[in-house]
Amino acid sequence: MNFFNQSLAKAASLPHIETGQEIDLKVDLILGHDGTWPKVLNAWKNTNYKLAAGNKVFLTLDHGFPALSIKDRIFHQELSQLAKEKNLKLYKHGEGVLHQVLAEEEALTPGMLIVGADGHVATAGAFGAIAFSLSPEQLIKPLETGYYTVTVPETVTITLENQPIPNVMARDIALTILGNFHKEIKGKAVALTGSYLEQASIDSKMTLCNLLPEGGALTAFVIPTTESTEEEASYTIDVSTLEPMVAVPPTPTNVQAVSELLGKKITVAIIGGCSAGRMEDMLLCASVLKDKKVHSDVTLIITPASSKVANKMDGMGITSVLRNSGAVVMPPGCGPCPGKHFGLLSPQDIAITTTIRNSPGRIGSEEAEIFLASPLTVALSALKGEISASE
């Protein structure tokens, strides 16, 4: 069996499993946040919040924090009270976006089984964890029993070889996969391997695993270098041949090279959140924006993924560099991405962002245009007032 099937077999206490087989997985960790947990609580209350013994639940307030409405504030208080009663681990003081805080606070290990009511729990796959995204209603069974029933999906192995040129980031590699292989990865588990990953930072690995569910992947993960099982490559990408990429509205899989969109005017630029708000991204943005000014027609919003990232930025003087350029540095969290607050778009806005979705209305008006790109491309574009890949 490959690494993925081995991990599932272990979680199911079975000696062997096959694709298409229905199995019950013992879950190691359950995730959630204030974006989906109102629906979770609404369904869970039917059993008076029954929680299986030994279940570990990890929650954050990141989608609408600080509260953007009275309703949100009431929910924050309800969740806080339930967390006390049920011993749920709730981060409620602006620690940041779920997936980044999880990586900072928990020991994520190869093969551990994670489920969560969020579309991007596969971010933990950077550590070799196997993470499945569930609907709020689907999360009730794992909460109450500690098990998740899954039909073993097919595995697609993507081998990433060599190293990218300087203006190509992990986000560009992820967009390349979405653009070229979204039909091939839909409904499957994506295993990532290759010489690129042997050199890539954990920040870059998290970026890769974070975005692939937008192409329909059930989960994505980096195969541990210590893994001895044979993995047959389904597809191979020479990342040294890639160029900066952009996902064009209305879907993350509608991908073009930045070179095809040069000169496209923008009014908003957004950097940060769960896909690109880590230290690697912030350092790069500061290097681009240092001693320069954001274009007068552009609002640049930067959201650190966590308070720990924000503190490092402050200590290194990065926050000041960004503010001095004209950028607005937001509190750690999801920022504008969920379309709740902190930078909604008007019908006239054209935005280039590092967020995870560009469907109509994602960040405000349905008439606004959203282009998805790497932090480097977004920073360069913010300076020029148009989509750009160079200073």
Fold blueprint:
Blueprint: H1 3-11, E1 22-26, E2 29-33, H2 37-44, E3 57-60, H3 70-86, E4 89-91, H4 98-105, E5 113-116, E6 130-133, H5 140-145, E7 147-151, E8 155-161, H6 170-185, E9 189-193, H7 195-199, H8 202-211, E10 219-222, E11 235-238, E12 245-247, E13 255-257, E14 268-272, H9 279-289, E15 299-303, H10 307-316, H11 318-324, E16 328-329, E17 350-353, E18 369-372, H12 375-384
Parallel strand pairs: 2-3, 2-5, 3-4, 5-6, 8-9, 8-11, 9-10, 14-15, 14-17, 15-16, 17-18
Antiparallel strand pairs: 1-7, 12-13
Helix pairs in contact: 6-8, 9-11, 9-12
DSSP E strands, number:
18
Proper CATH architecture of the largest domain = 2-Layer Sandwich
- What is the total number of structural domains? 3
The residue ranges in which pLDDT falls below 50 over 5 or more consecutive positions are none
| Estimated share of beta-strand residues | 15-25%
Query: Would you identify the CATH H-level superfamily of the largest domain?
Result: Aconitase, domain 3
Shape: globular
Q: How is the largest sheet built, in terms of strand order?
A: 4-3-2-5-6
CATH topology annotation of the largest domain: Aconitase, domain 3
SSE order, one letter for each helix or strand: HEEHEHEHEEHEEHEHHEEEEEHEHHEEEH
Q: Nearest-angstrom radius of gyration?
A: 20 Å
Mean of the pLDDT scores?
Answer: 96
End-to-end distance, in Å?
48 Å
For the biggest sheet, the summary is: 5 strands, parallel
Overall CATH class of the largest domain:
Alpha Beta
Helix content: 25-40%
Number of helices: 12
Structural class, from secondary structure content? alpha/beta
Domain Aconitase/3-isopropylmalate dehydratase large subunit alpha/beta/alpha: 19-227, 263-385
Keywords: Iron, Iron-sulfur, Lyase, Metal-binding
GO molecular function, one term: metal ion binding
Protein name: 3-isopropylmalate dehydratase large subunit
